[in-house]
Amino acid sequence: MADTSTVRVEEKLYQNRYLVDAGRPHIVVAPHEKPSKELLLLVKLCPAHCYEVNGKGQVEVSPDGCLECGTCRVLAEGSGALTWTYPRGGYGILFKFG
Amino acid sequence: MPAEKFDVIVVGAGPAGNSCAYTLAKRGLKVLQIERGEYPGSKNVQGAIMYANMLEKIIPDFRDDAPLERHLIEQRLWYMDDSSYTGVHYRSDDFNEEAPNRYTIIRAQFDKWFSKKVQEAGALLILETTVTDLCFSGGKVIGVKTDRAGGTILADVVVMAEGVNGVLGTKAGLRPRPKPDTVALAVKEMHFLPSDVIESRFNISGDEGVVIEAAGTITRGMAGTGFLYTNKESISIGIGCLVSDFALTGKAPYELLEDFKKHPAVAPLIAGAEVKEYAAHLIPEGGYNAVPQLFGDGWVIVGDAGQFVNAVHREGSNLAMTTGRIAAEAIFQIKSRKDKFSAENLSLYQKMLEQSFVMKDLKKYKRLPDFMHGARDRLFGSYPELVSKAAQNWFRVDGKDKKSKEKEIVRSFVKARGVRGLASDAWKLARSWR
Question: Does the domain formed by A9-93 have CATH 3.40.50.10420?
């Protein structure tokens, strides 16, 4: 199998249609000094690559490209590491095909 | 927001919500359906295969105008390692029948069509509105709150057809959040090609279609499957694994998808296609034991929100449609005898489900998720490689006598797992299949 470390998710998301609810992120990571194991996992697992580790080693989310799958909710909402709601009606991913 | 009271509020306009709202509206109930998407289907993802029988029970003449892609005449099951597949294919001209049994569909189009039928039947649909909370009075659900101005909307009963994530019920403490080992994360792409190219690559003509379901090392030892479905002018390709397995391995889902697309047996099928969408969605795969409480005072749960997916047979939207329809029939019966929508009366929904194929099928495979989990490193790792090596040994003509080949094959399995291990896996599989 080929080396897969070069997959560019951003290019994939570029195919999609979104209506971003500017200034109202529907996923919010709770403030933390050191990220939990779950939060660090999301950097790898999120299919839209919404999670990144910042310069201070904390995990940040920018859900503009979110596919609203709920993986992060299932893994990390229970521990209080993040809050997850659906975007406001009409906003977010708008699947053309689904 | 409407100020009047409704008989039923249906949250969500996917197959479960649409089936429920349609059945209720057709029987004259006052139905409000609320969908958060810009249009029905805009938040929904499926492979997608639609099973005709379950839709016929709701809209018998759906073939007249439903947006259907191809009817399936061939099913290919592939057990894959990195360079091969060992397959079982079933193709029959009998599937070229007047009223075909299975179709590929594109959900954004199908859900829009279904929703139009729901509205024609008399239900009121509100789009671009997210239901934020259930409203209670004395422990009974009496309506919902949305993210639009206007406060509570009242109804005798609320149907939660909100999909796999099931936020409302969890928020209200009526059901647990889905657990990582009861949901699979699947990623999917839409690859566009001219219809004649698809037909020649898949050995089909006209509206005939092929479905490929694949398992093996493509999921890198995680419990999961890949799929490839032919639409008219596109191919849906995707792969998914249990979220708990992704969490264990830390593998990125899009990397699995890229590897699957590059597999030597898959790449030629999608070569030269234009990708027009990348999607991700959870699939409820916990089976019978993961089904939450389905009813209570003033509420019921239908579709993916109730974990109604038969992972073995890749059935989901048909269970969604059936649970939506059955919930509607139960609600209609209670309404007809002017009874209250208490938990006791709504337990009729559960009783009717137990009588249907939905619960019978889920029950049949209730041990399977545990088996898949326990044997995942073998089922999705060592076994596909052993099967491939065995097949290759068998088919390669190299002057070695056949008896020696047979011995080598048997020895390779015994060496990998031991006689007791093999017997144990076979026994557990058989038991979980019963």
Answer: no
CB atoms B282 and A41 under 8 Å:
no
Sketch the domain layout of chain A as residue ranges: 9-93
**What pTM does this model have?**
0.96
Q: What is the ipTM of this complex?
A: 0.95
**Gap from B111 CA to chain A (nearest CA, Å):** 10
| DSSP run (H or E) holding B86 | strand B85-91
- Least CB-CB distance to A71: which of B36, B42, B282? B282
pLDDT tens column, A10-63: 999 999 999 999 999 999 999 999 999 999 999 999 999 999 999 999 999 999
CATH of the domain at B243: 3.30.9.90
**Pick from B144, B254, B312: nearest CA to A45:** B254
Contact A98 B41 (CB under 8 A): yes
The nearest CA of chain A is from the CA of B183 a distance in Å of 9
Residues B273, B204, single domain; the answer is yes
Alpha carbon distances (Å) from B29 to B55, B104, B146, B341, B422:
20, 32, 22, 14, 56
**Minimal-distance CA residue of chain B relative to A38:** B247
Domain identity same for B417 and B385: yes
Task: Quote the tokens at residue A52.
Answer: 């990144």
| One domain for residues B43 and B126 | yes
Q: Is B277 at the interface with chain A, CB within 8 A?
A: yes
The pair of structure tokens assigned to B424 is 């144990």
Residue B272: which domain range? 183-284
- Interface probe, candidates A40, A86, A94, chain B, greatest B C-beta count within 10 A: A86
Window B:51-110, CB contacts with A under 8 Å: 82, 106-109
Q: In this structure, are residues A95 and A64 in contact, taking their beta carbons and an 8 Å threshold? A: no
Does residue B254 share a domain with residue B188?
yes
Residues of A in contact with B165 (CB under 8 A): 70, 73, 86
Q: Does B262 touch chain A (CB under 8 A)?
A: yes
In order of A24, A86, B317, the CA distances from B132 in angstroms are 15, 8, 24
Count of domains forming chain B: 3
